[in-house]
Amino acid sequence: MAHTFGVDLRGIIDLLSHHLYSSPRVYARELLQNAVDAITARRALEPDAPGEVVIEPVGSSGGTLRITDTGIGLTEREVHDLLSTLGRTSKRDDLGFARQGFLGQFGVGLLSAFLVAERIRLVSRSARGGPAVRWTADAAGNYEVEVVGADAGVPVGTTIELVPHRDSEHWLEHDVVKALVTEYGALLPVTVRVGDEVVTHGGLPWAEDALGYGEQVLGVRPFDAIPVEVPAVGLKGVAYVLPSGVHPGARQSHRVYLKRMLVGDSIEGLLPEWAYFVRCVVDSSSLRPTASRESLYQDETLLAVREELGRQVRDWLVRLDATDPDRTRALLDAHHLGIKSLARVDDEMLRLVERWLPFETTDGPQSLRQFRRKHGVIAHVPDVDEFRQLAPVAHAQGMGLVNAGYAYDAEIMERLVALDGPTAARRVAPSEVLAALGDPDAELERALRERLTTAKDVLERHDCEAVPRDFDPGSLPALLVTNVEAERKRDARQVGEQADPLWAELLGSLVESTSDAAQRLVLNCRNPLVRRLAQLTDPALVELTVESLYVHALLQARRPMRPKDTAALNRSFLELLDRAVGSQKG
Ligand SMILES: Nc1ncnc2c1ncn2[C@@H]1O[C@H](COP(=O)(O)OP(=O)(O)OP(=O)(O)O)[C@@H](O)[C@H]1O
Questions:
Q1: Is the CB of 289 under 6 A from ligand 1?
Q2: What is the fold, at CATH topology level, of the domain defined by 442-483+518-585?
Q3: Which ipTM value was assigned to this complex?
Q4: Among 220, 247, 254, 367, which residue's Cβ finds the most Cβ atoms within 10 Å?
Q5: Which atom of ligand 1 is nearest to 35's Cα?
Q6: Is the shortest distance between the CB of 69 and ligand 1 below 6 Å?
Q7: Assigned CATH topology for domain 358-436
């Protein structure tokens, strides 16, 4: 024998309120949506039919909330069929596909009224004829239907009345209702009133003043407003480029309307991740909402829309680059991370980065293109600290270096090589820079090494080995580099394989060092102070000079100062001062 499932309405309402909808506030949206759909249905029969929804919150109409529409209304049969059967809807066709033009489709929305009401009363008269009908239902699943009568003066349309739960009255009061209805429905294409106040806008506010609307929505004046459109899903709107201060990890959130009804303010997944500095406000006629209508269904269509919107933002960037260099630079300043990330996979973005984004170089901040024009190749170091150490050395040798130690830099260099060939960019190993330093005069080196033996304690204290070398400019007394022996040996072998024999030999001499000190102080024998150091006889002065040179080189390398470095700085500075003042007195 066949049986039919029974449904416990209380269980279903509990499911809706705790697991489908995030808050009881959605009741306002569902009622509004049904009213608008009813007007749409009526206008399909009578194009000139009135389109108005009036909401009277608790207080203005006694202890209940009333929502009246001038829609298609319901016949007695439809009331039984559509309102009293869970999941039954008039908004799907015979094959079960959502009908064009309607907001609803699942046949459960009306139940959300039970999130705030213990009883729903509905009076309706169908535009298709027949008497007015009254339907009364409670949250336990009991309902009654009665015919009001053909001559009761009920106009075509529907009035729904909610009798609130004891603790839900505030959801139905004027201020809350007005705020909810305005938030969800301000852009709806019908007139919606809360009491006497019309809350609908009439048009799309971003179409009138995109930047002004953006400022209102974002709380800050956008950098720019890009009109976006995806006709395949009836989508139109604006992509707002944020002015600055957005973190790349920040969650993207967009304001999305479906058929002019708000879905939400923090909808994700509408733009590719790289566009983290863009926020959209869009309305679409055919993107699919989830059953709660609080987010978008993640399907192939949404993926295609995401691609297309990403493409439109990117095209805007390319246009900006071609027409407005100053704004392009300002944009890159604010959002270089997102744009760099895009440059890894997009050649036009790569060119934009190459032309406009300032990189730290031995010639000061400049674009890769500028650097390449001067040096022929983008010689880059893939680590910020390494760059800081090597930059003064390289600069002194007239060797140009680019700091490629920030996010995406290395991949950008690889892309440049892939596009423009191996001469476009080249990674520079530390040993390559050090190898360019010459051998000092033998006599001077011998004298200097003797002094360095005197200052052995100072050098040991700083875990440092001193190496005399000969290089330009003579004004630079010393350089401090990290002695990463293993890495240097590896680099040297690598460079040695590629470099000419002379270079390979120089490299070999550097690598042969057996010191396991963590740092290397490269003293410049061309520098007058270093030359004088070689002649000093007072051991205390030798120590003071070596420590001062060390501290100076440390500051030059822009390394973070550890407490013992700060102590050394104070000690040497004060002692030098003391000696200078003392000698003045004498
Ligand atoms: N104000 C109204 N005027 C006319 N018919 C209505 C009204 N409200 C509800 N109905 C009828 O009741 C049916 C069920 O409504 P309900 O809100 O539960 O689901 P839905 O709107 O079809 O879909 P969804 O669950 O996506 O909102 C509707 O399909 C519609 O036919």
A1: no
A2: Four Helix Bundle (Hemerythrin (Met), subunit A) (1.20.120)
A3: 0.97
A4: 254
A5: 1
A6: yes
A7: Rossmann fold (3.40.50)
